[in-house]
Prior knowledge:
Strand content of chain B: 5-15%
Helix content of chain A: 25-40%
Distance between the termini of chain B: 53 Å
Structural class of chain B: alpha/beta
Shape of chain B: globular
Largest interface: A-B, 203 and 207 residues
CATH class of the largest domain in chain A: Alpha Beta
Distance between the termini of chain A: 26 Å
Order of helices and strands of chain A: HHHHEHEHEHEHEEEEEHHEHHEEHHH
CATH topology of the largest domain in chain A: Aspartate Aminotransferase, domain 2
Largest sheet of chain B: 7 strands, mixed
CATH superfamily of the largest domain in chain A: Type I PLP-dependent aspartate aminotransferase-like (Major domain)
Strand order of the largest sheet of chain A: 1-7-6-5-4-2-3
Largest sheet of chain A: 7 strands, mixed
CATH topology of the largest domain in chain B: Aspartate Aminotransferase, domain 2
CATH superfamily of the largest domain in chain B: Type I PLP-dependent aspartate aminotransferase-like (Major domain)
Shape of chain A: globular
Radius of gyration of chain A: 25 Å
Oligomer: heterodimer
Number of helices of chain B: 13
Structural class of chain A: alpha/beta
Amino acid sequence: MICAPTENRLSIEKSDAGRRGLFCKNPLRARAKVPANLRRKAAPRLPELSEFDVVRHFTRLSRLNFSVDTHFYPLGSCTMKYNPRFNEEAAALEGFAALHPLAHDTCSQGTLELLHDLSARLTELCGLDAITLQPAAGAHSEFTGLLLAKAYFEDKGETRTEIVVPDSAHGTNPATASMMGFTTVNIASEPDGRLNVEELKKHIGPKTAVLMLTVPNTLGIFETNIEAIAKAVHEAGALLYMDGANLNALIGLVKPGDLGIDMMHLNFHKTFSTPHGGGGPGAGAIVCRKHLAPFLPVPTVRKEGGRYVSDFGDKRTIGKVKAFFGNTGVLVKAYAYMLAHSAKEFGDIARYSIINANYVRALLKDLYPSYSKEHCMHECVLTPGEDMTAKGLKTLDVAKGLIDRGFHAPTIYFPLIVHEAIMIEPTETESKETLDEFVAAMKDVHDQGVADPQSLKDAPRTLPVRRLDEVLAARQPNLRW
Amino acid sequence: MYIPHTEKDKSEMLKVIGVPVFEDLVKQVPSKFLWPKFNLPQESLDEAQAAAKLSGLAARNCRPLSFLGAGAYERYTPAAVKAITSRTEFLTAYTPYQPEASQGTLQAIYEFQSTVSALYGMDYANASMYDGASSFAEAVRAAVRVTGRKKIIYSAGVNPQYMDTLKTYFAHSADYTYVKVPMKDGAMDKAALPALLEGAACLAVQTPNFLGLIEDMDGVAETVKKAGALLVAAADPVSLGLLAAPGEYGADFAVGEGQSLGLPLAYGGPYLGLFSCRKEHVRQMPGRICGMTKDRDGKRGFVLTLQAREQHIRRDKAASNICSNEALCALAATVYSALYGPEGLKELAEANAGAAAYAAERLSAIKGCSLKFKGPFFNEFVLAVPGKAAAMREKALARGVDIGLPLAPLYPELGETLLVCATETKTEADILKLETAVKEAL
Lengths: 481, 442
């Protein structure tokens, strides 16, 4: 990561009046006739650069990033696996990329067939009955799922106002619940991170709409009592929602539908290898049982004779959660990934994601004790050992020490129920050699911290910037040029 | 299959873990759930086979000469945009949780926020939303939070899909009311505003509107303000190369569909929600926001900031549940805007307006066809046709031209009409082909 030390200017600071990059010379420009009173008064303050300036500027920025392609990126709960290049090529095929969302169905048969087959494969993989591919991301899927629940209960003439979530849940679960006007009921998890069925029963009743449960949970532990949980939820007349953020642990190994859930969401940018793009675009889905299917967003894709048609479906639909169909470009990538896997090969994804996480956990157990005393699924939650905390070292210091050594930090301070959490999700695509190097770096961070705590508190030193003043950023917001 | 492990790796790793077989690691899963049967292909495809299958599917989508718009616009994507967004340092990074290791993404977001603020003439913008529809819905939600009112006034020219999405966002309560501002010659009837605005949270307006017409926003903000309401404006970003910016006419929140800034149509996504606001509403902005700050040595750097609004901190008290956004699309839009610059964006906007003006001139000269509305439009317009618009479209499609979107399902009151769009991708020759196609479809 070599760059000239003075070179951290914004594009606008490299701008010079009158310099040009691209032009639009279409002669039809001359025919534009917009009345003067409707025109903008001041030109927007945008950079004036040559094309080469722009390319060099953004190429330089790209080199300031850690990414899956350049660094091990064990961000727990985010499933930062290899993003196959083939997926990108598939989505860029002109036939897919140039298709207008309002194209007539006769013009979109290829895409509709792809979406139809993707839907069929995903519902089978999840062991459920129906699916929508419209949500743009995981949180957007949660929103869709709770809308389904709401419509379902309204259809039954029931009013249910509460969403139950364990305290280990992702922040999006309670945020979605309140966005939908539900009250969130938090349940404390057991010391092993699991939900206590008796405790759960105390919190659910006629007001409960949905229990949102991440499986495996955010400690990387499977809800062993899932059947009893599902039974209790259903006896209360409520629905069981599975947050599918951690599906990588189960894919091809367990059918979530067998566990008694009513619906779940998928994150294509996690389990199905589509790239995270620095924070999106992702794509989501809600997969559900038959009783929720009439409420799914529209359109869905149906096969009619030999043709595929957009189906605007049941009158009871919740409507649209997004304009047009969904993040189709991302779905093409996920489909390319599906084609590359048989059922058995999906199982290998779960198998090796679990082996990798347990391998890291085992090698680090003396220096970074695991929160949970049993084997983990696809991710493990560790904490700094007492020899580090005794010297005032925190998880944040471990994270910064790691990035100084060329490894992206794990997810830190999550789940909230673990003090000083370090959540490591290696994914199945990382080799034993990479994990060995990571473990060595974690040990080196430990040794440095114990020997010279201040030097670790001064990390990182090898990156373009050192620790940044977040308080200043929040107190005096500087959000634009 | 993208798994590197050999059998030897596996056995060595299991040995380190201290279990003889993998199944010992998953004893926490009741065994009856393990390894179920899947009705899925028993064999996966190799890359060449998968490529052939996908190319075959892509080829089954036909590629007419298309004059469809209606919220998604055909654009040329510059090579340099593709080159930058395929840099895998951008493509395969995640949300910049470790700022020191993510300065590239963070600075790009800061420049994106700056670009959107500048284009819309607003004080601040966020790091993006899912699409124009979700930005629109979130802006109205913010207006509701700010004013504490639940009545939403919207112009009849707001994209119907945006309204559908908004109503879904508010589906949790029957308390919200929606009042449509009547249309006058395809545009908002401003005279109707004062009476409608009483007790309203906001006026939501789109310009150019869904029917292509440019709304005259003169005096609208004043009327809105007088009623104690807020102005939410949706605008196509390319139109803003030429047309008045929402900030110039006094919008409180301004949103748009960023797909226009060089993103592929891709059958509806991934697109890019643009979201901007006035300074006083910054803490009501949903989603991620990047800010400039200093590191320990006083050097410039970037971090995610104002996070006290967000789901991972506030949980059930958050401004929105949004987590992932459309960062890579935001990068594409930023590079696109930097490549064209203010002058190039103006040229693009002129080319759109010029192409549509020429198409309107040719089509309205066809016997039986006429422009439905008289007002100025940007890159699309409503054409009244003498026959069934849907049947005409199918007939023309068979000859390789998509002549536009029949509006009857969305606006039955307009009769048999087509919404016809021409962007900078269209030439004079293309428009003459459109003219022939419409004539032949009559």
